[in-house]
Amino acid sequence: MMDYCEVCGREVETKIITRKEIFNVCGEDIEVDAQVMVCAECGEELFNEELDSATLINAYNEYRRRHKLLLPEEIRKIREQYGLSQRSFAKLLNWGDKTIRRYENGAVQDRAHNSLLLFLREPENMRTYLTENEVALEEKQVVKLLDTVDKLEQDTDFRVGRRYFDLFFSRIPCEENGFKGFDYEKLCAMVLFFAHKSAGLLKTKLMKLLNYSDMIFYKENGLSISGLKYAHLPYGPVPDNFDMILGKMAADHIAHIEVFYDGSYENHQVVPECDVPEGVLSDEEIEVLTRIYEKFKNFGSAEISNYSHKETGYNATKTGQIISYAYAMDINLN
Ligand SMILES: [Zn+2]
């Protein structure tokens, strides 16, 4: 990308470097790897809004990780699970009118607020809260909310599915999951996206496409898309416990694997069972998936495996180890 450098006094080639930067988040110094655009000729730093905001998101997420705080998106999910508006949710909690909106938009929540939100994530706790507190909601809103709590408690998919997944997939953001709790819904949308785009998509290739999508999105935005962890296996980086996820996707009629034989080779093909859901992936996420699809569309499973073997993160880890998203900074697809 070309940009104007004031020192050189003309349009110059730019490059992106990584350096440590310290940000003050809520009175605490947080060191992050910041990506900065500089003039390729004289090294002068050039302003780049996207990189700056990605770095800031990184710093905030690092702060949240240190203090085990919910991410903005997780707060939104808790509210939506109860079908409440931002205003009603704030009212229910006896918080200021705009508090929930600020948190969902990225302001760091205070610790007491975080504890209450974590507690209320469980429907049975919401019932307790409603019975033990004088809440400022209208009577009919309370009735409706209790009804939603009932439904959530009866919904065995919600309960069993969540507990089962919680055993294997962390909902707490950390470096291993790209600072994002595991998001089954987004992962399903990613799998469907690739399965619909590429006819005869094989499982081995899908695993690499997911890995590159999460890593590149993380590199550019400071968060992964799916919250998957990726492990180092002999044939490249693969999502941790992936067969378990594929089992659930088959049970949910999202997609399943069909085995066919090509000579003596056993091929595992991904067969989609529904359309890519609307509104699950953001425009930015779809843009990254499209870029990854385009980059690798003519690669076979073996080629993409070989390609992934040269990545720093893969080479720096041993078989079975989780590959940190920090290595995403070294991935360059051009
Ligand atoms: Zn310059």
From TrEMBL:
Signal peptide: none annotated. It holds the Pfam family SocA_Panacea. SUPFAM superfamilies: lambda repressor-like DNA-binding domains. InterPro entries: Cro/C1-type_HTH, Lambda_DNA-bd_dom_sf, MqsA, MqsA/HigA-2, SocA_Panacea, Znf_MqsA-type. It comes from the Bacteria. Residues 75-106 form the HTH cro/C1-type domain. PROSITE patterns: HTH_CROC1. GO terms for molecular function: DNA binding. This is Putative zinc finger/helix-turn-helix protein, YgiT family.
